[in-house]
Design goal:
2 domains; nine-stranded mixed sheet; globular; binds flavin-adenine dinucleotide
């Protein structure tokens, strides 16, 4: 039986791998010349079950207003004449209640824990290399108020099996000595020993090469133009191939993994996905003095930045700008990142040599992705992974492969159902 996977980011590539393991004949289509070239290219590198607090939480509306006019703010909402953005914003506000926040944290922790274990299995089975570090993630707070506000969500995470321990500034510096110069400013910290980090792009590219060697067919430089339907089913994918010709590719089942571009492809088929691009930035620095650079993956809460050591490079990523599909670099935001890195770890690298990048997180208002069957029975969804697509990729992929094969995934999660898709038009997604 044939399956076509639409998109070869980290989510599409892992989906293809797990579908191949289910015994399907898999083809993956992507417009780029290789896998993992768009949002999965230079992200923060964290495999962080502990990063399960959604953007939509009780404190978010006040913060969004505070940041509204600040050019280098970590979260920037630029209002546009775009009904999709307004609809997304309204739903985001509805997700900010304590009840919805708790529900969404539970989804993220369950999917995260399952996914981290699935990633470890893929690593062991395939031997794929990606500058993986298994040294945990340390989250530090330089604001007492932010630290106090983080304790409640951390407790919910612990309740559902994410071992996120609260630690002192002294313990934080013992775990990561490079933080010594800012120790006096650390109000508190948490440490999740089981979390990991690694280069999502290397992982995706190397897994795609491994999958190709096992028989998965990757069609690169091929742009998806539309889906054809017949008798309530998807009958083919119209593409422009690398020779510039339009052709239709056919399969029995189709899995949508096009990140921020997923909603446009299925809108005319009546599948309504509330995904909006949340543009983020990263800077990658070659390390000059390893003794001054962190080697544990870090989250700097005040600046909403994450740090991951990828071999001899340090990747720093963060900020969110809800402002449409542009990936242009804003110099003010780039410089704000390297300024903070140099403040924390002076002498570690030359900031002038930073390589900057932007990517569009496929964000849902709740941070919970769409994983499951759509209202069209041979069209499946694995998309909308927002801030945590790398963390959640293997677990989402393993689950969608089970759903495509007609089995219930072995994961407690609000999988997408037809009712959930329809309810996003007017109200809250219904928990499964
Ligand atoms: C700054 C930043 C930092 C981040 N940090 C982290 C982190 O530390 N940890 C974490 O877990 N997550 C992180 N993320 C989130 C993570 O990177 C994303 O959730 C993830 O990459 C999404 O993967 P995806 O496969 O869904 O999308 P993508 O990687 O964007 O893949 C979609 C694919 O579809 C293809 N495509 C789209 N349209 C078409 C078309 N018409 N025809 C053909 N192909 C098409 C694209 O070429 C692309 O390859 C971060 C994101 C950003 C921006």
């Amino acid at each position: 039986m044939k399956v076509i996977v639409l998109g070869a980011g980290v989510v599409g590539t892992t989906s293809a791998w797990f579908l191949h393991k289910e015994g399907y004949e898999v083809t993956v289509i992507d417009r780029q010349p290789n896998a993992g070239m768009e949002t999965s290219f230079a992200n923060g590198g964290q495999v962080s079950v502990s990063h399960a607090e959604p953007w939509a939480n009780p404190g978010a509306p006040k913060k969004v207003l505070k940041y509204l006019m600040k050019e280098d703010a970590p979260l920037l909402f630029r209002l546009r004449a775009d009904s999709r953005q307004w609809r997304w914003g309204m739903q985001f506000l509805r997700e900010c209640t304590p009840e919805r926040t708790r529900h969404n944290i539970i989804q993220m922790v369950n999917l995260g824990t399952y996914s981290r274990a699935a990633l470890q299995d893929v690593r062991a089975e395939t031997g794929v290399q990606y500058d993986c570090l298994t040294k945990g993630i340390l989250h530090f707070y330089t604001s007492q108020q932010e630290f106090d506000e983080a304790l409640g969500p951390a407790e919910i995470m612990r309740e559902f099996g994410c071992d996120r321990k609260v630690i002192s500034a002294d313990e934080a510096v013992r775990i990561e000595p490079a933080l010594a110069s800012v120790k006096n400013r650390i109000a508190g910290a948490t440490f999740t020993e089981a979390d990991e980090s690694g280069d999502a792009h290397k992982f995706t590219k190397n897994l795609a090469a491994h999958a190709a060697s096992q028989g998965v067919n990757f069609r690169y430089d091929t742009t998806i133009l539309g889906l054809d339907s017949e008798g309530g089913q998807i009958s083919g994918v119209r593409v422009r191939n690398k020779d510039g010709q339009v052709e239709t590719l056919k399969a029995d089942k189709y899995v949508l993994c096009m990140g921020s571009y997923s909603p446009m492809l299925v809108k005319d088929l009546g599948v309504d996905l509330l995904i909006y691009p949340a543009k983020g930035y990263s800077a990658t620095l070659e390390i000059d003095d390893a003794s001054k650079a962190p080697s544990t993956s870090l989250t700097d809460d005040e600046y909403k930045l994450v740090f991951s050591r990828l071999g001899n490079r340090l990747r720093i990523a963060g900020t969110a700008e809800l402002n449409g599909y542009s990936t242009t670099l804003n110099d003010v935001r780039c410089k704000a990142i390297t300024r903070r890195v140099m403040e924390l770890f002076p002498g570690m690298a030359d900031p002038e040599k930073a390589v900057y990048w932007t990517g569009l997180r496929p964000a849902t208002p709740s941070n919970v992705p769409y994983i499951g069957q759509s209202k069209i029975s041979n069209l499946f969804l694995n998309t909308g992974h927002g801030t945590l697509g790398w963390t959640h990729s293997c677990g989402s992929a393993k689950s969608i492969a089970a759903i495509v094969a007609g089995r219930r995934p072995d994961l407690d999660f609000a999988f997408t159902r037809e009712s959930q898709l329809e309810s996003t038009k007017g109200g809250l997604p219904t928990p499964a």
